Amino acid sequence: MIAWRTRQRLVKGALGAVTVLFLAYQWLPMLTMAVLSFTGPEGGTTFPMRGVSLHWYRELLRVQMVDDFKPPLARSVALALACSVTTAALALAAAQAMRARFRGSRIYFYLILLGVMAPGLLVGFGVALLARALGLGLAWYTSTFAVHIVWTLPFGFLTMLAVFNRFDRRLEEAALTLRATHWTTFWRITFPLVLPGVIGAALFGFTLSYDEFARSLFATGPEQTLPLVIYAQFDRQLQPTLYAIGAVTTAVSLGAVALFACLVRLFRRRTLTRARAVPAPNIP
Amino acid sequence: MSTRRERSPTSYALAGPAGLWMLVALVVPTLFIVWVSLWVARGFTLASPLTLANYGKFFARPAYVHVLGDTVQQALVMMVITGVVGYSIAYFLVVHVRRPGLQLALFLGLVVPFWTSALIRTIAWIPFLGVNGVINQALLAIGAVDRPVEAFLFSRAGITLAQVSFYTLLATGPVVYTLRNIPRSLPEAAQCLRATPLHVFWLITFPLTLPGVVIGQILVFLNVMADFATAQAIGGHKYAFLGNLVILLYESGQFSFAAVVSVLLMTTMLLGVALLLKVVDIRRFGEP
Amino acid sequence: MITTRREVLKSGAMAAGTMALGRIPAAMAQGKELNVVGATFNLRDVILQEFTKRTGITVKPWLNPSAQARVDRLRVTPVDNLESGADFVKYAWEEKLIQPIDLSRIPNWKHAARLFVEGQHSPQSPVGFGDNPGRMMYVDKEKTKAKYIPTMYQFDSVGYNPEKIPAKDNVLSWGELFNPKWRGRVALYGIDWLGMLDAALGMHALGLLKAADPTNLTEKEVDTVILYLKEKKKEGHFRAHWKAFGELVNLMASGEVWIADAWWPTVLEVRKKGVPCRYAEAVEGYRAWAVGSCISASTKNLDGAYEWINFWLEGFAGARQAEIGYYSPVDTYTKYLTPEQVKHFYGGEGRDGGSVERRNAKVFVWNTKPKNQEYYTDKWNEFLAS
Question: Per-residue b/e over A167-183, b at no fewer than 16 CB within 10 Å?
């Protein structure tokens, strides 16, 4: 019989190995992409590399009409941020509502989930035809936004449901018995506790919207989002400019994350100092 | 709000916005797709008469039924793989990694790749898995193989490999949340009562994380069922799942039949979710 | 009238407000914008910029690798021009999504190559099976109106890596695509009707198929082709199928694929990446096609649409497309190319496959969407599901 402690360590090692291997599996293609983004002007999107240069980054910066990636990139980011906030808000509200088990909540659940089940291409086409019938135009900040939320909301909703499922409502009840209003209870008890879920929903909203292209294909007006522009590139040539974009967005994400971490640490330090400044209550 | 009386007006008000959005932006186009699937006309004619025969046409062709079966099979395989890998990673992150900083760093390490467009990552798989790619060069260098392995790319195995990369996070995320919410006292209490670690896991931890597992499985199931881009790009256009079938039919101008396949896809997904919910009814809340 | 400062401020605010809302009088806006649907191999930066420079019209391109998606774009939103090949022009015409083009407004069409006026380069040249643009593009017998104006064309055969695949005098048969020696190194086009057409050409070359018209196979002939393809798939003959330009360049430049039913510009791109690649002269003949511009039925800028077409035939666009390997139906490009370049691109000096004349003499089929397209799709899906 293997000792308990050793067994613990083996299990930990095995799980750790799985995690590390998976991380490597995720990041190796990213590194490949980063390395290839520095290929020379004659290089393509595959090995062997032909020289080393910043050529493709320069190409990215050059203002171009058809191949310009910067406006679509800006649009995609803006759209993703909007989707992020909207998804988090709508998912939170919907999950809260579900807890009350209102009439029709079963159908409501499937209604929200329908967003993931309907195939994107035809939903986009349906929305576009509908817009045409109503005489409305298509644009990335209207029709595309609408179909993106349809796609991201189920994910956020499921996340919030998962979080609420493990939520101890006695905390809320306690607050209510102490004569807090429902709103106060929500804002000071419920919300901070489910915040990880809200952030998760927001993350889903951002990531899924940023990447979405099946639904956007028909529902977007002449001003396209980034994935659509990339998809259009398949037709001509897959330039390492795409890799440059990938490398840049990864770098920006890492930067944003680092910034966020620093801010959190700063915030925490300040709250701690403030807490220490409050004198302890004198309880007889 | 479980603290409110059930069916209170507030709950309807809260549910309203999301519900309305889905109705307008999704239900109506979906009904449109269902309507198109009933068209007799081959092409695009809004004034077409309706029939149910198109569905019969789908099931009359063994190749199409085969595609349906194939897609479901792929989804099940992916659910198992992502379930196991996802749970392992989640467990490791929450239980074994003590420092919250490291925990967050690892979690972000999993999430950050998703902020790079999936299309670009898909393109990057070719130099990664191809015959002249990184993996094959490494294998050749260490002498594990004497010629490059072709099966990584443009094959069913390749599609599965790529999908594991894209979808495991969906299975990991919800499990992480549910794992974190287990109070430390529970496993400790069990151990005081002389339960082995295996018992603790199987009888305490795992059942408590079951909602997270089910949600993760639902997400993976839905995504793999609808996936067409990965199958197309990594599979080299050699394979057809239901999602690809929709596009192929659309490309040849058969709108009504493409709609039929869409409806069947949606129905299968609905059935799958209903089945998965039988395991854990995640719509019930606040129950200790 | 004394203008008070308040009124000046008010009118200034109004002007600023109007500009902020971006509301230019509708008519002016329409004349200055052109919605064009096409692909990245014709809606190229350099051409669009020149067009805007000359006419002041801003082009709003909508790009998509899928020909079907491009046509369907016309259903959902007003478009001015659609760039399409003869195959989908037929489809768009039947669906009444495009309108006839008045040839009297296209002065340069008088100089069009005989290929596009009579359907044959010379009276002895083969007409070729299928939708010959010179025959099907005209609406009426007098040839005063057209469904579309071809702006670029080419003759397709087989692209291959000469280091891996030997070819005497750069001549290969379509059947080479099915040579078992190249198992696992072949790419075939992935859209059902075109993939099957190329497969039919290959099988025809190997004597495995006797089709009266390879572009319009009967159901039995389709069955024969699919059966053969399924066998080949089981053997692992195809490394991948390709649907978009960039995909094939990737496949050949990374060494995954040695031979494919490629397009000429893909061969050029692969060579640029340092991988040897040549375009063979097909023993049985070429598969030709012509992509051009149509005017959408829903256009709001008819004059702009005609300007667009005329610009394409004026010569600048033709010259730029010649540089990446496409021919122009009108010889106005000579204004923008050096004589050496003309000799190279059109005269065939130092170019695979020889001159335009030589290719014209070997036209075998044209890109055609078959009459029983549905049967093709069903069978191709069967092939994919196997």
Answer: bebeebeebbeeebebe
Of B84, B161, B223, B266, the C-alpha closest to A158 is B223
Distances (CA, A) of B258 to A88, C359, C385: 33, 39, 16
Whether C206 contacts chain A with CB within 8 A: no
Q: How far apart are CA A231 and CA C15, in angstroms?
A: 40
> If contacts are CB pairs under 8 Å, which of residues 48-87 in chain C contact chain A?
48-49, 52, 59-65, 69, 72-73, 75-77
Domain ranges of chain B: 55-284
- Chain C partners within 8 Å of A47 (Cβ): 254
Q: Which chains touch C (3 or more CB pairs under 8 A)?
A: A, B
According to DSSP, the residues that pair with C241 across neighbouring strands are C188
Beta bridge partners of C295: C81, C99
Nearest to A237 among C35, C245, C254 (CB): C245
Residue C157 has pLDDT above 60, yes or no: yes
- Compute the mean pLDDT over every residue in chain C, rounded to the nearest whole number: 86
Q: Given the structure tokens 């299990």, which residue do they identify?
A: A11
pTM over 0.90: no
Scanning the structure block, which residue is given the tokens 């909508």?
A: C62
Placement of tokens 């199931």 in the chain? B221
Whether the predicted pLDDT of C310 surpasses 60? yes
Q: How far apart are CA C180 and CA C202, in angstroms?
A: 13
pLDDT in tens, B49-80: 888 888 888 898 889 999 999 999 999 999 99
Q: How far does the CA of residue A213 sit from the closest CA of chain C (Å)? A: 12
Does residue A105 belong to the interface with chain C, where contact is any CB pair within 8 Å? no
Pairwise CA distance, residues C383 & B66, whole Å: 12
Find, in chain A, the residue whose alpha carbon is nearest to that of B131. A47
Distance from C-alpha of C184 to C-alpha of B236, rounded to nearest angstrom: 12
Please answer whether residues A83 and A208 qualify as being in contact, where contact means their C-beta atoms are separated by less than 8 angstroms: yes
State how far the Cα of C222 lies from the Cα of C224, in Å rounded to an integer: 5
The two most distant CA atoms of chain B are separated, in Å, by: 73
Q: How many CB atoms lie within 10 A of CB A239?
A: 18
In b/e form, how buried is each residue of B91-124, taking b as 16+ CB within 10 angstroms? bbbbbebeeeeebbebbebbbbbbbbbbbbbbbb
Helix (H, G, I), strand (E, B) or coil at C81: strand
Q: Which tokens belong to A34?
A: 């980063």
Query: For C167-185, what is the mean pLDDT?
Result: 91
* Chain B residue at shortest CA distance from A207: B115
Tell me the shortest Cα–Cα distance from C272 to chain A, in angstroms: 6
Q: What phi and psi, each to the nearest 5 degrees, are found at residue C284?
A: -85, -15
Ordered domains of chain A (ranges, CATH): 69-277 (1.10.3720.10)
In chain C, residues with a C-beta closer than 8 Å to the C-beta of A224 are: 62
ipTM, 2 dp:
0.82
Interface residues of C toward B, Cβ cutoff 8 Å, are 66-68, 72, 75, 91, 95, 184, 190-193, 233, 238-243, 250, 254-256, 373-374, 376-378, 380-382, 384-386
Q: B55-284, which class in CATH?
A: mainly alpha
Q: How many CB atoms lie within 10 A of CB A109?
A: 20
Q: Are C259 and C182 in contact, with CB atoms under 8 Å apart?
A: yes
**Cross-chain residue pair A221–C77, CB shorter than 8 Å:** yes
